[in-house]
Design brief:
It contains 23 helices and 9 strands. It is α+β, with helices and mostly antiparallel strands. Helix 16 runs antiparallel to helix 17 and helix 19 runs antiparallel to helix 20. The protein is globular and about 85 Å long.
Length: 598
């Protein structure tokens, strides 16, 4: 029998071991698709996608799909992806820096969004808002399922959960704004990893990486060390801020507040830290904390005017909105006007003219709230002129501002019975929104429905009933369609359209159609009032009052009496807490009730 030398045997075994090792190491791969502008957008072909360790670049096929193989990497390894198409930029670029290769590329494809550079920030804001909303609604459904499993869950518990959901959704916008302007690769390793986990829908893992214990250790080290202390404090504060933002997606607002407070301890002299602190508390209606944050930010900005002049105006605008919401009108006007003065001084470049228009719209709302209609009209018109001018060279970005301002101005015209001007403004806004909705229906179809609803009210005020019914019904059709895919957001709008349509049908003695519309609107509003009574019970009362009028018109007095009584009970309850707002409704419904035959 042939023998094998000891040396040859060792070499053979080594070769076998090497072969076995390579065979057991599963090479990583990445599948994905490149789309235009937004999730669900049309696929883009011939886009170059590459990464280190993946060989040469690959190009997307006609369906926008691509595949990268990483023979020397394993699932879980992190790679930086490079995506190129002439004239286009990446929308969700934060996902491409340090992307975690999936365990199974077939079940975890990556979607990459590209947009024209001028539109990138708008679609980035939309994308990151979508990711935040998805996290909030998933948490809401999870907590709701937990409550449902309890046999004795109370209405108060359900109401509290819905309120938490709404607070979290309000805070998503600020998270989206920050992410849409963030640079890929910003922050330390912990921050980048946590960001990737969040964007990959692994919120638990992201929060575990940003645990209070880990961040506290980082903060203590940063506060103790002199060398590179500022850089370490900034990184620690950035991680705390991300922790606070992610905690809001879990409705953990108290813990999020602690995280934001920790950023101010680390960076007490930093403008952005106090500005973010203020926005967080403003969205939660923590007025004193929000004011404290804005005043700290203002103090820093005023001490360094050359550095913070634009930021000073941003802060004044936000503080003015806070004042306005608290009916501190004189302080609000003063802050708005100072912000306008700063922006006007900077508006020699187009980059600040949109901010002038934003503050003008906010100031016009203040004037309108105080019934200073002539001043409101003048300010709206100035904002409109700016948006029209900007839209001449960048229509995709600024035409929505034109339409929004036209709608606001038209409402003001309608309230003053300036019907021709109102119609002209509504119709121009509607034409813009219809055009925008052709290429971006998810974003602009709700605006089409809103403008149709406003225009229909104008037609109703002028007794142009056929036109009003046509517009109300089109708005209703759009809103029903939107509600099929996003019921929490759009069913209340469906109820509004139904109620408006029913009022008109009642006036035309189309009683059965009106009754059906009112009953459906009432059912929707009762359903939402179970989980969010403070918002929707007044709408239940309004619908009941209108239904009672319909019953009276048909001599169904017992039904009218019952509906009026329930509406009165609701309005009286709210009037006890907020008499300035709801006492007039109590008087109105009581007067209607008293006119019924005894």
């Amino acid at each position: 029998m042939a023998t094998i030398s000891t040396r040859r045997l060792a070499l053979l075994l080594a070769g076998i071991a090497c072969f076995i090792t390579l065979d057991c190491l599963a090479a990583a791969s990445l599948n994905g698709v490149v789309r235009k502008n937004q999730m669900g957008g049309e696929p883009l072909a011939h886009v170059s996608v590459s990464a280190p360790d993946a060989g040469g670049p690959t190009a997307t096929d006609d369906s926008g799909r691509f595949n990268l193989a990483f023979p020397r990497l394993a699932p879980g390894d992190r790679v930086d992806l490079d995506v190129k198409l002439k004239g286009w930029v990446v929308v969700n670029d934060l996902q491409l820096s340090g992307y975690n290769l999936p365990k199974d590329a077939r079940v975890s494809p990556l979607t990459i969004l590209l947009a024209r550079e001028a539109e990138r920030e708008r679609y980035a804001l939309q994308y990151y808002r979508l990711k935040g909303n998805e996290a909030v609604l998933a948490e809401y459904q999870r907590k709701l399922a937990e409550q449902t499993q309890k046999n004795q869950t109370t209405a108060q518990e359900r109401d509290a959960l819905a309120l938490e959901r709404d607070k979290a959704l309000a805070l998503v916008d600020e998270l989206a704004k920050q992410l849409s302007t963030a640079k890929p690769g910003a922050g330390d390793e912990r921050y980048r990893q946590a960001m990737q986990l969040f964007l990959s829908n692994h919120l638990d893992e992201a929060l575990a990486l940003l645990s209070e214990q880990k961040l506290q250790a980082d903060a203590e080290q940063a506060l103790l060390l002199e060398k590179n202390a500022r850089k370490m404090k900034e990184e620690a504060a950035k991680n705390y801020r991300l922790r606070g933002q992610l905690l809001t997606l879990r409705f953990q607002f108290d813990d999020a507040a602690k995280a934001y407070l920790a950023t101010t301890v680390l960076l007490p002299d930093d403008f952005q830290t106090w500005f973010d602190f203020a926005i967080f508390h403003q969205e939660l209606n923590h007025f004193s904390e929000a004011r404290q944050g804005y005043e700290k930010a203002l103090s820093i900005a005023r001490a360094n005017p050359d550095t913070y002049r634009p930021k000073l105006a941003d802060t004044l605008n936000n503080l003015a909105v806070l004042h306005r919401n608290q009916n501190r009108y004189d302080e609000a006007r003063q802050a708005f006007e100072e912000a306008l003065g700063i922006y006007h001084g900077l508006a020699h470049t187009n980059s600040y003219r949109p901010k002038v228009a934003i503050v003008l719209n906010n100031l016009a709302i203040l004037h309108r709230n105080q019934n200073h209609y002539d001043e409101a009209r003048k300010v709206y018109q100035e904002a409109l002129d700016i948006y029209h001018d900007l839209a001449r060279t960048n229509s995709d970005t600024y035409r929505p501002g034109v339409a929004r301002t036209l709608n606001n101005l038209a409402v003001l015209h309608r309230n003053q019975n300036r019907y021709d001007e109102a119609r002209q403004a509504f119709e121009e806004a509607l034409d813009i929104y219809r055009d925008l909705a052709r290429t971006n229906p998810n974003t602009y179809r709700p605006d089409v429905a809103m403008t149709l609803n406003n225009l229909a009210i104008l037609h109703y005020d002028q007794n142009r009933y056929d036109e009003a019914i046509k517009d109300f019904q089109e708005a209703l059709t759009i809103r029903r369609d939107l509600a099929r895919t996003n019921p929490d957001a759009y069913w209340p709008d469906v109820a509004t359209s139904l109620s408006n349509l029913a009022v008109l049908q009642n006036d035309q003695n189309r009683f059965e159609e009106a009754r059906n519309a009112y009953q459906e609107a009432l059912m929707i509003r009762r359903d939402f009032a179970r989980t969010n009574p403070d918002t929707y019970r007044p709408y239940v009362a309004l619908t009941l009052n209108n239904m009672a009028i319909l019953h009276k018109n048909q001599n169904r007095y017992d039904e009218a009496r019952k509906a009026y009584q329930e509406a009165l009970d609701i309005y009286r309850e709210f009037s006890a807490r907020n008499p300035e707002t709801y006492a007039p409704y109590v008087r109105k419904v009581q007067a209607n009730f008293d006119k019924l035959p005894k």
